[in-house]
Amino acid sequence: MKDEGGDRPHRHRGLVARLRNNFLAGLAVVLPVGLTIYFAWAVIGWIDSWILPLVPTRLRPDQYFGYNIRGIGLVIFLIFTAIVGWLAKGLIGRSLIRTGESLVARMPVVRSVYNGLKQIVETVFSQSESKFDRACVIEYPRKGIWGIGFVSTRAKGELAEKIPGDEIVTVFVATTPNPTSGFLLFVPRRDIVFLDMTVEDAAKLIISAGLVYPNPADPTVPPPRALAPRAD
User: SS3 for 16?
Assistant: First the structure.
């Protein structure tokens, strides 16, 4: 007669393994969505906490509904910013901005802080079409070790004249897991190995520390070849 008692531990371990796998699979789906909603909710609340105190008391939503509606401060901020941007494009707005910047330029400490923040904001929100052309790998920080980089353009002006080499290319080598920081390098084109993966896929590879490849089903098959870098 078959001993059913000996099969119970195996069935029990199999059930636990299935529950664990289902839980991990569900966590992989729920966690990104939950964290995204949480951070969005927190950011909206943070903006509301800054904007609503500036709104006159009689115009606040809690005066009419009995409670604050989350997101009202964000809407007010967006409308106000759009109006300021519209005014800044006009002659009067540009004159006011120049007057304000001239006043700030006379304040030693404030001037440095303002200029630094202005450069950062203009870089982040620049509406120009400048962008990375292609992803590549170069031997960095020494021979035999390869790092992923992003080709922006050819070196120009004094850099192109004084750096030895036939054609010098500007390459940004990003750091893991934060691709917004890294090193700006000027590399001879002959030392660059261009990749077929897109810039977005290369960024995902850096952020994931090498865990997410462009083609997860078959990493040996590259995506369609990227466009050649611009000549300018």
Answer: helix
184 located within any domain: yes
How far apart are alpha carbons 140 and 228 in whole angstroms?
A: 22
| Terminal CA-CA length for the chain | 83
63 found inside a domain: no
> Considering its fold, how many domains does the chain have in total?
1
Rounded to an integer, what distance in angstroms lies between the CA atom of residue 154 and that of residue 189?
9
Residue 178's domain comprises: 134-207
* 165 occurs within a structural domain: yes
Edge-to-edge, what's the strand order for the sheet holding 146-154? Answer: 182-188, 168-174, 146-154, 134-139, 193-194
DSSP annotation of 211 reads -
Give the pLDDT confidence of 172-199 residue by residue, as tens digits: 998 888 877 899 999 999 999 999 888 8
Say what the pTM is: 0.47
Q: What is the pLDDT of residues 34-50, one digit of tens each?
A: 888 999 999 888 888 88
